[in-house]
Design brief:
9% strand, alpha+beta, 10 helices, 355 residues, 10 strands
Length: 355
């Protein structure tokens, strides 16, 4: 396991604050109410995460490296107390609650991708048990990794549906845990955008792996199936075409840039971590698209090598990450291969120098 001087007090949600901020100002209380309540709850959980980091997390069962996941699903029963009532343990049969079953399957899909593609045993690499709570709060419009477990809201039914529906959302949030246990990227500015992008990358790979898709067959969307029918949009983000995931009266227009020409300078959302992540997202898509086949085998391996290689600094900039992907492509696939060329060209296309 590679760590860099203690864990950052990171609280990560799949729906960005800038989306909830806009919804909170909507004139329809059916839209603004859940958004405001979600923002308030997120603020509390973010503070709790910081306190947990300072005071120390509760002691968990000692992990043991294993080729099998150890999943436990809890039902929060629309309350805010975590984890809630235990409703499904590892190896037990599916029940009648589809949300519980999806959460269980999503944790398993994440475990399988990391094990089978990268020989990583769970989130920490040492068999960490995977815990998740569903039915969190009332009309809660988010899902998050709090440093210890996954938490899923049911959505408000107006704009967002059940947050266990997209498996890439589950993979995205659990990958924040992988980053926590490896490069531990600071959640601000470009390093924070890289943190978010890495979660999108591996969240997408988890979905592709579970569906057996090639890079050409994948939709490269994050959160497809999460938006309610009334929303004009297809997902929360698009890696293939950042800035095109939605264009809706309530949500607004997807603001993600695809290249450095559109880089957003802002003090909000930890320096725009959910906005500027579109740039490294797009670079990864371009690499995977150029190489074809299963994206986790080459493009994903390069990104994983950088994340876990020990050279990625906590406060890395885009150019630092890009330079390391070039080095990783050379190391794993050689100087003259298509892999190196694809990586160099992709970063050039999005405007990030690799030296």
């Amino acid at each position: 396991m590679t760590t860099h001087g203690g864990f950052e007090p990171v609280f990560c949600t799949i729906v960005p604050p800038h989306v909830l901020d806009k919804l909170a100002q909507h004139e329809d209380p059916a839209i603004s109410g859940p958004a405001r309540e979600t923002l308030e709850r997120d603020a509390y959980e973010r503070t709790h995460r910081r306190l947990t980091t300072v005071l120390g997390a509760p002691t968990l069962a000692a992990p043991t490296e294993t080729d099998k996941p150890r999943r436990t699903i809890y039902d929060a029963k629309h309350k805010q107390d975590l984890p809630g009532k235990k409703v499904r343990a590892e190896g037990s049969d599916p029940g009648k609650d589809a949300t519980v079953n999806r959460a269980y399957a999503g944790l398993g899909a994440t475990f399988e991708l990391y094990l089978n593609a990268f020989n990583r045993h769970s989130i920490d690499g040492e068999g960490l048990p995977l815990n998740a709570s569903v039915h969190y709060d009332v009309n809660y419009d988010n899902a998050f990794w709090n440093g210890e477990q996954m938490v899923f809201g049911d959505g408000d039914g107006e704009l967002f549906l059940d947050f266990t529906i997209p498996v890439d959302v589950i993979g995205h949030e659990l990958t924040h845990g992988v980053t926590q246990y490896t490069a531990n990227l600071t959640y601000f500015g470009q390093s924070g955008a890289l943190n978010e992008s890495i979660s999108d990358v591996f969240g997408s790979l988890i979905k592709q792996y579970s569906l057996g898709q090639t890079a050409a067959e994948a939709d490269w969307l994050i959160g497809a199936g999460l938006l309610a029918p009334r929303v004009t949009g297809v997902a929360l983000r698009s890696m293939k075409a950042p800035g095109t995931a939605y264009d809706d009266d309530a949500l607004g227009k997807d603001p993600q840039p695809a290249t450095m020409d559109g880089y957003v300078k802002t003090g909000r959302d930890n320096g725009g971590v959910h906005l500027n992540s579109g740039i490294p997202n797009h670079a990864f898509y371009l690499v995977a698209d150029a190489l074809g086949g299963h994206a986790w085998e080459k493009a994903g391996q390069i990104w994983y090598d950088v994340l876990t290689g020990g050279e990625l600094k906590k406060d890395a900039l885009f150019t630092d990450f890009a330079t390391l992907t070039v080095a990783a492509a050379k190391t794993r696939f050689g100087d003259g291969g298509e892999e190196l060329q694809a990586v160099q060209k992709a970063w050039e296309q999005v405007g990030v120098p690799t030296s």
